[in-house]
Amino acid sequence: MTRLIVIRPIVTSPIVMRQIVMRQVVMRLILLFGLVLGAVAARAAPPAPSHDIVVQVDNPSHVGLALNNVENIYRYYVEKGEPVRIEVVAFGPGLVMLRADTSPVKARVHHIAEEGLGRIVFSACNNTLHGMERAEGHKIAIVPDARIVPSGAVRITELEHSGWSYLTP
Fold it and tell me: Which residue has the higher pLDDT, 40 or 71?
């Protein structure tokens, strides 16, 4: 036969009993507060996704259109208050856009890079640059607002694999 053993508090003082009850009430309030806070956090809107766009420029006749797209995309997301990053990758004949000696848009590239505050990057294909240097027989400098990447096509592929959207004008 099983006997039920009831344990009663040894202290029956009203003050001690009141303290025990108050501790239980405080613990329940803390638990309730935690549950409410968790529910509020779960309902909070997630942060806006970053808009990451890579723009290919491989045709000199598309340079102006590519820069228009960059400015329009950047302005659109900035006005919405959403994060945006844009990388313009120039290779092949489109590298003329980033050549310091022949770029018809050098000032515009500088202005866009400044306005973008690091969120707009210009990348020049090193493979194309070396090919042009061999063909012309001299070193070719790129505009100061651009950086050199080993391969334009590979750079675009890497960015796409990282989730960037691809745009070609």
Answer: 71
User: What per-residue confidence (pLDDT) applies to 56?
Assistant: 98
Find the domain containing 27 and state its range.
Answer: 10-44
143 and 127 housed in the same domain: yes
Residue 91 lies in a domain: yes
Q: For residues 69 and 55, is the Cβ–Cβ distance under 8 A?
A: yes
On whether the CB atoms of residues 155 and 119 are closer than 8 A, the answer is no
Contacts of 143 (CB under 8 A, 6+ apart): 98, 99, 100, 103, 106, 109, 110, 122
Place of tokens 């549950």: 35
Is residue 132, in this structure, part of any structural domain at all?
Answer: yes
Residue range 66-90, pLDDT digits in tens: 999 999 999 999 999 999 999 999 9
Q: How many domains does the chain have?
A: 2
pLDDT of residue 30: 81
